[in-house]
Records
---
Amino acid sequence: MKKRYLTLIVSALSILCFMAGCGHNDAMKDNPSKEIDKEQTVLNENDSILDSTILLLGNNITLPCKFSKFGDIRFDSSVAVITENNGLYGAIYDGDYRIGRIIIDDYGADDKDINDKMVTYLELKPDFGFDDIDVEYHGFTYKTSKNTLIESLGNPDEEYDNNLCYYLEDKGYAEFEFSQDFTEIESIKIKTE
């Protein structure tokens, strides 16, 4: 009985892989080595273009960095959450406006001053949009469309819902979330390791 179910499952998976191509397109069937080279070329081109530096409110910030590099941006630790890696995930503010969230690594319960703590994740998603925030990532602003981003950077390494994700050269990613019509960026996320 177990053999019958196992055979049935293997057969079903084989059919699904054949129909879906196991995630590869038809060009791969003709010449797999050329398709792999093409994918690696795009990845290498993206990696050489993208890094973890963003211009935020007049400050060039390269993650990972000490929180002090964020200048006058304030971190709200009152509702922050401890991550599974002993980091601290919480909101950042420019004046009274929440502009996003960060993760601070190696946060201890006794830490009073976070200025010397390292920030490894930045998510810019202002409560009231990007209209009043000076932000630029490799020349892209919140008014950048999906098509413009892809024309400049090539196809993303991952795409889902309204998000485009590009892997960074030094491990990590830059992710752009777009409005439903893909005409404006709603959030920018940068994660480093």
---
Amino acid sequence: MLNLAVFFGGRTAEHDVSIITGTQFIENADTQKYHIIPVYISREGLWYTGEALADAKFYLHPDFSRKGISRVWLSPEAGSRELMKKTAFGVKAVERIDVAAIAMHGMHGEDGTLQGLFELADIPYTSAGVGGSSAGMDKILSKAAFKGLGVPCLDAVYFERSEYEASKEDIARRVEEAFYYPVIVKPANLGSSIGIQKAHDRAELMDALALAASYDRRILVEPAIEKLREINCAVLGNGAEAQTSLLEQPLSKGEILDFADKYLPAQGGSKGMKSLDRILPAKLPEETEAEIKRYALEIFKGFDMKGVVRIDFMIDEATGKVYANEVNTIPGSFAFYLFEPAGLPYRQLIDRLVEGAQKRYREKSESKYAFDSAILQKVDMNSLKMPGLKGAGAKH
């Protein structure tokens, strides 16, 4: 039986959403194939494991002193696959990880940081790699990548929090010189529509800038599409070997699709992204559907993605033009609801994620990481200078 560790929670504004995604994943995993190891990361960055953590209800009144829950950590050393804990007699291994399922959203989990730890420890994991995760998380980097791949996206003005705090009026003027109102203001490194606002004038712009700057040190502003239609497409696979999901049109109660639309349905009780009001499949002309799916596969391959990624698009209904909006490298609920109607149940989707993690790990293992350069043989150990390398000396 495979030891499958599911990581969720985290030091992010999307902490609660991650709990929903993680516990949903655990509920649907095949316990005949996997020994499930819940790994919850607190808002303070502390790691815990234990069976009780697999139940979403635990987090209504969490008690980490409960019997069976251990505070743990993972070493970054190559081959260090064991979750460790302190005991009265020293350090003890709690569980060994064969594959890590990353159900994290936002910073410190979806942005490549946790992926980097698993790369160092040689643990197969289900999400995109370090590069794809970091580029997908940062909306500014994503736009640059979209343009490089030939995928259309909206222009944007971007700046850092320090620039905004130094001269808020200058930032507002930069936005107004670039675009007509209304505009959309976004934190660059946040998901679930947190911190996003639409501004119709200078006063609303200043409010939106303050909100975005409170969530992130990098902010971007782009023109608002007045006749907007949002379309989401999930992709499952490994690089060029990938398939697209059904397309969905999420429905918003306001001018933009916000956090409440996604996770707080009117019926009460969130079931993650599955509970979102949507048209599924989206009703689109065949050529538009094909265009979106083509762009989605190109982005998935270009970002070197694996696992399940949801790519969000926008259609300007006044012109019919399609724009890539953002990449969700670990989408809410793993976007299983976009694959199930096409005949891929969540349980089988999980199997595909695990298989994909193992395949990418094998591919990594097949690459050479050693090169006999003979450089060290030429080192003068007395001076630590290497002939032919200018300025290569070292001083103690």
---
Amino acid sequence: MNKIETLNLKCTLTDEEMLAISKEMSEHINKKKQAEDNLSSFSAQLKAEVKGHDAIINKTATLINAGSEYRNIKCEVIIDPAHDTVSWIRSDTGEVAQLERPIPQRYLQTQLEIDPL
């Protein structure tokens, strides 16, 4: 009785097999390159997103530590010649934001009203 066994032996590839394997390898090289490009793009997007969050975190941490920030607030200017002062009153709180003594020259100039002919 003949017994059959399977052995793992070296075989030379045919031209058709070489062509098929080359095509498969080329496909996977292209797919790998596309995946790497996608990874780089996605990684760059995520890095930019993280950087944006870091900027906001740093800004808000600074505000919390300082407990204040500078804002543009409209102020009413009150010129008081009797006390030789100019006061700026905050429109948001009604507090005196700034007081100058003596009255600065720019506030001492008077406007002349000229009637048109």
---
Amino acid sequence: MRREKLVTAESQKARVDEILAVYRSQGVAVHCDLRRVPLHSLIATQDGIEADKLEVVRRLVQQGKLTIPVVVEEHFLNDRLTHYLLDGHCRVRSLIEAGKTSVEAYVLWSPAGTFRSNFIEVARQYGDVRVKDLPLV
């Protein structure tokens, strides 16, 4: 794995801005806050974690060199808050393995409590698996 493929603070912020722009173009009121979220309840929006990438990310996280916030959507579903991880699956897994319980995240949310999201649909297709339980691929 080459280093340049890993996320940077600038690319992460650009990704958040891009996601927000798409929602706004669809007329969806979505806000973004930077705050801490619990790691163990994050639902994955992919079906596995790349083992090679995880190895590199794990080392960087342990060294404190990859502290970029992850990207999360927050929805109020079935009478509870649910967090879907949009970006940062390897970082979250590495933090869980290191014994951490929360992570700084760009949290996308709506005053309506929930909103139509393709990320939720993808997570459901994969079985609403928590990041901590994703298989390595």
